[in-house]
Design brief:
Number of helices: 13
Strand content: 5-15%
Low-confidence stretches: 206-215, 219-228
Shape: elongated
Structural class: mainly alpha
Distance between the termini: 127 Å
Number of strands: 7
Radius of gyration: 43 Å
Mean pLDDT: 80
Strand order of the largest sheet: 1-4-5
Largest sheet: 3 strands, mixed
């Protein structure tokens, strides 16, 4: 009873919503501890609290195919089938990124092609990092826009086969969907305008004087052409994107400065240690030389003392004889 779909649930893609997850994975979810303890008798209101407690996304992992809490909550949403407004609020939530990922994944499973492009493409501007658990059970870092691109382009995500959706080009040709406006269009237009100004400055003066002011400027290439009229909402979104890019650039510059400062500090500390070791070695060598010099001086003094003492104890006659023998190159006499 606890694993059955609600009675008033609508079929998705012509089948039971829970059947969108493969049978072996669905069975593993039913047998998991998280499903039995945390997902039992879970309603749409209580589902929000469980979604806020998520710490990572993922499908199944390990040799015995264990499901992640993210996949358990996806199957629970397929079972109770919450209203579309709740799912849209999940996607628009900016405070909890894993709640947004859960809503986007569920909408990709049950939504139409038009809904997927309409509600998931704005998430391309979300560059936050999220954790994902792979099949080996290890964690890896991905970005929210990478996860959304995987949902819209790949055939499988989080170990579940995604339902097929129509290509965006087909929807545009049928006038069901407007042409997608990239956030990089403003930068491209600024780059083109700056390049045109540079080309005008490089012209010779006579050509500049004969330049026809009534002649229209060269239109952008068809690849980057778009309508000039924008809604205030799109302008605010583009302005917010530019502000976020500026903040990211400033943070990267600060990180580079801190890294250079730490490298200089470590270099100075290592060079100081090398100088100290060099000074200690030089002082040790000087000390050993002084000790050897003092030892040689003491030996010489002792030899002189012995020679003077022996000469004072010798007989004057023997001493005179030894002097004569030394003059003749003979060995001295001994006592």
């Amino acid at each position: 009873m606890a694993n059955r779909t609600v009675k008033d649930a609508h079929s998705v893609k012509g089948t039971n919503p829970q059947y969108l997850v493969e049978k072996i994975i669905r069975t593993r979810i039913y047998e998991s501890k998280y499903w039995k303890e945390q997902c039992f008798a879970l309603s749409a209101e209580l589902l929000v609290d469980k979604a806020m407690e998520l710490k990572y996304i993922g499908g199944v992992y390990g040799g015995n195919v264990k499901p992640t809490p993210f996949l358990c909550l996806v199957l629970k949403m397929l079972q109770i089938q919450p209203e579309k407004d709740i799912v849209i609020e999940f996607i628009r939530n900016e405070d909890f990124k894993y709640v947004r990922a859960l809503g986007a994944y569920y909408l990709r499973l049950i939504g139409t092609s038009l809904d997927c492009y309409k509600y998931l493409e704005p998430l391309y501007n979300d560059y936050r990092k999220i954790k994902r658990q792979n099949r080996m059970g290890d964690f890896e870092l991905v970005h929210m826009d990478e996860f959304i691109d995987e949902l819209l382009r790949e055939e499988r995500a989080c170990d579940v086969i995604l339902p097929r959706i129509q290509k965006r080009q087909i929807l545009e040709e049928g006038n069901e969907l407007d042409a997608r406006v990239s956030a990089l269009d403003d930068d491209l237009e600024e780059f083109e305008s700056s390049s045109e100004d540079e080309d005008m400055e490089k012209d010779v003066p006579d050509k500049r004087a004969n330049y026809d002011l009534d002649k229209p400027r060269r239109s952008p290439s068809p690849r980057f052409r778009r309508s000039r009229s924008r809604s205030p909402r799109k302008e605010r979104e583009n302005r917010g994107d530019r502000d976020r890019r500026e903040r990211r650039r400033s943070r990267s510059r600060e990180r580079h400065r801190d890294r250079d400062r730490d490298r200089d500090r470590r270099h100075r500390s290592r060079s100081g240690d090398r100088h100290d070791r060099h000074d200690k070695d030089r002082e040790r060598k000087h000390k050993s030389k002084r000790e050897h010099r003092d030892k040689d001086r003491s030996h010489r003094d002792r030899d002189k003392h012995k020679s003077s003492k022996s000469s004072s104890n010798e007989d004057p006659e023997i001493a005179e004889a030894n002097r004569q023998r030394a003059a003749l190159g003979l060995a001295p006499l001994r006592m």
